[in-house]
Amino acid sequence: MRHNGRAPIKASTMRPEDLSLRESEPRMAVCPDCQTWRRLSRSMITPHRDGVAVPKADTRRYFGDKPSGGRRCPGSAQRIDIDITPEQWGEKLLEAETTAAGRRTARQIRKPRPQAAPATVQMPAVTRLLREQLAEHLQSDCPRCRAGRCAHVIELRQRIRRTEQNAAGPAIPIYGQLRTAFREHYATCTPCKKRTGCDAGRRLTARMTALAQDHLSRTA
């Protein structure tokens, strides 16, 4: 196979997506004329046809059927000068894929819609008044709320959060300690593992249940 007479194309100037230099695989390149993947043989693109129909001649130059696929592609036997290593090609390919992924993620992000305020009967008793004030203010035509920097709304939300934390009281830390103690007891207690239970396990379970019910009754 003789080259097509064109100047060689340096692999370093090609797009990394149009070249394949993976080890243990045949080297391939995209033909610059027909844009199809072709194998490289002696650093040249193997001869192929581009699919363009060839007009029929009056006389045949040979006997037999004419090869299908159209004319011989002008990019056949194009020399590719492999002037980069497979590692350098892999780095360029990874950089190109990263850049393309960054462009795909640059899309418009829609602002989530505000959630509707809960009904009055669904509000905890200790914060019901504060939540009603917050809901009433959000329904008003407040220009600072539209701008997203209303100090009154921020203050109400902080008061609701502090009130809920104060209403919870010390029951939550105690509940966590009891749960840890029950897990340690369960890991070493044979009756509890067999689901028959023991007195110590029942007492721990009863205290945890009482704390949870007390917490729910105060926040309901």
Task: Describe the 3D structure.
The chain is an alpha+beta fold and 220 residues long. It folds into three domains: 9-104, no CATH class; 115-167, no CATH class; 169-220, no CATH class. Helix content is 44%, strand content 7%. It is built from seven helices and six strands; from the N terminus they run ββββββααααααα. It has helices at 86-104, 128-139, 143-147, 151-168, 171-188, 190-193, 199-219; strands at 9-10, 19-20, 28-30, 37-41, 44-45, 80-81. The strands form two sheets. The protein has a four-stranded antiparallel β-sheet with strand order 2-3-4-5, with no helix packed on it. A two-stranded parallel ribbon has the order 1-6. Strand 2 (19-20) and strand 3 (28-30) form a beta hairpin. Helix 2 (128-139) runs antiparallel to helix 4 and helix 5 runs antiparallel to helix 7 (199-219). The longest helix has 21 residues, at 199-219. The chain is elongated and about 95 Å long. The mean pLDDT is 76.
